[in-house]
Amino acid sequence: MRKLAIAAEHFPIAGTFTISRGSKTEAHVVVATICDGPFKGRGECVPYARYGESVESVTAALEAMRSFIEDGGDRLALRAAMAPGAARNALDCALIDLEAKTSGRRAYEILGLSAPEAVTTAFTISLGSVETMAAQATASASRPLLKIKLGGDGDRERITAVRRAAPRSRIIVDANEAWTPEIFPAMMDTCIEAGISLIEQPFQAGADDFLREAKRPVPVCADESAHVTADIARLVGCYDAVNVKLDKTGGLTEALDMIAAAQEEGLIVMVGCMVATSLAMAPAILAAQGVQFADVDGPLLLAHDRMPGLLYAGATAHPPQPDLWG
């Protein structure tokens, strides 16, 4: 007989993680564990205030699905029974993990995927002063892919300084909705000059139409504007890429469909993450197979990860072992 357990946990961040909307020193996660006899399936999610979520609201949403889970509900029915978001992500991933444990098969087999390979992950540099970000870029200059958080004022100087400090790295810039249409042409020029590979979510979600007519020599990626598969059709023509995060899609099941839809439309795909532990990254690594950008560095930003965790070797993130997930 199934039982659902819900736990809120926190993990200190190594220093401070800052984006345009604020700073934090801890990663707050919620873990759903589904027990079936001796078998346990786990899924981790990150409640995100930008989408109206909190630890309390996600915990309540999970609790509301207790009967569904304990009565044997499956992940396909879950998509119809629950809105996308962090809570559904935890349950979807827990159900996949449980099926893997009870069947003795790997999660990728259950999902009809090929055996996963290691991926090269971006490494994120928090928003800060020009000098601080340049110093962080210098320390990370050996990494092949950097992602820098931006915030509006001073971003041209930040981009130039980071590029100077990490001349060989590919760089993604992430404005987290902090830019405006008025500054976009100048920011695009700076990104061209710095050889930036991707610009992520320059404007507030809902202000996407400006991009339809804007020149985009550097590809522009939707994040806050893109949550689920149904969003893909309206992004075409405004964006060149999409950031697929399991906490937005409501799980790996939806994420795989969203990636397929994006690729069918010719969009560049990034698989991203929140600041979280290896338990949250493990299913994301399955989603990141074969996409152009993987940003699964959440555990690298923590003071310590959960154990057992994923194996990271520099910028290389290896697929999960069964004792972690899947």
Quickly list its features:
eight-stranded parallel β-sheet, 13 helices, three-stranded antiparallel β-sheet, alpha/beta, 14 strands, single chain, globular, 326 residues
Describe the structure.
The chain is α/β, with parallel strands linked by helices. The protein is built from 13 helices and 14 strands. The chain has helices at about 55-65, 65-70, 75-80, 85-105, 105-110, 130-140, 155-165, 185-195, 210-215, 230-235, 245-250, 250-265, 280-285; strands spanning about 1-20, 20-35, 40-45, 120, 125, 145-150, 170-175, 200, 220, 240-245, 270, 295, 310-315, 315. An eight-stranded parallel beta sheet has the order 5-6-7-8-9-10-11-12. The protein has a three-stranded antiparallel beta sheet with strand order 1-2-3. Helix 9 links the parallel strand 8 (about 200) and strand 9. Helix 1 packs across helix 4 and helix 7 (about 155-165) runs parallel beside helix 8. The longest helix has 18 residues, at about 85-105. The protein starts with a strand and ends in a 9-residue tail after the last strand. The mean pLDDT is about 95.
Low-confidence stretches: none
Residue fraction in strands:
15-25%
N→C terminal distance: 21 Å
Order of helices and strands: EEEHHHHHEEHEHEHEHEHEHHEHEEE
- The counted number of beta strands is 14
Proportion of helical residues: 25-40%
Morphology call: globular
Rg result = 19 Å
Structural class: alpha/beta
Helix tally equals: 13
The strands making up the biggest β-sheet line up spatially as 5-6-7-8-9-10-11-12
Global mean pLDDT: 97
Largest sheet: 8 strands, parallel
